Amino acid sequence: MKKFVLATVAATSLIVTSACNNGSSELIAESKAGDISKEDFYEAMKDRFGQDILLELVHGVVLDEKYDVSDKEIEEGIEELRAQYGGQLDLLIQQQGEEIVHDMVKVDLLRKKAAEDAVKVTEKDIKEYYDSLKGKIRASHILVEDEKTAKEVKKKLDEGAKFKDLAAEYSADRTAQNGGDLGWFSKEDMVEPFSKAAFALKEGEISDPVKSDFGYHIIKVTQTVKSFDEMKDDLKEDVKQQKLNDPTVMQEAVNKAIKEADVKINDKDLEGIIQTDDKDEKESDSK
Questions:
Q1: pTM of the complete model
Q2: What would the pLDDT profile of 211-246 be if each residue is shown by its tens digit?
Q3: Which among 173, 178, 187, 226 counts the fewest CB atoms within 10 Å?
């Protein structure tokens, strides 16, 4: 999950808890050398994490009014984090409670929905992308180190196993998490043994093991270039995803929602977070 920092999640729980008691003289630590009040603690947390945390909270309040995020989506987001961070996430949940992580994942999903809502794909965008695909194919592969494993994987495919499942289980490169998808490529984009085998396949066909300097590949051609009308709908989604990969799209969408909600920050030490976002938005609009 982009820009997700576990330390910030933990800080959120601390600063929100202390914020509820801001101004209180209740002591949270005492010693012969001196005491620490909840107010002292709040101010220290604000200085260190205040802007990031307040933005997180503002985004949650503003975007939750415009978009819906289901519990299922949040659970899937948490599982993605668990796959990425493993024990670190489980330890944080033990220490701070799952509700904190739940809320942070929800805010991130709300931001993504705001970005998706803001993205516009024109006919011109789709046509330009279509024209760029001439002479290319789209394929997936499963990359393994040795021929024995490659033959084992091919046998499972022949018996009906799903390509994407075996890619996730066996493939030795980063495409494994995407079902082995390599995207669109030309003959020149790949090493010769791979290209020769891939471009000899028809759409939907799967190759026998192919040896290259990287290991043994099993290749499946998933798409070939057809007429524009046949591909238009699929290409629209591809173009949309490309635009969503631009981090400025999400930032501008969130900034717009904050501006429309007329958010005002009453803490003079933190009021600059909204002014900074507005400035960034204006700079982006002027480009």
A1: 0.67
A2: 999 999 999 999 999 999 999 999 999 999 999 999
A3: 226
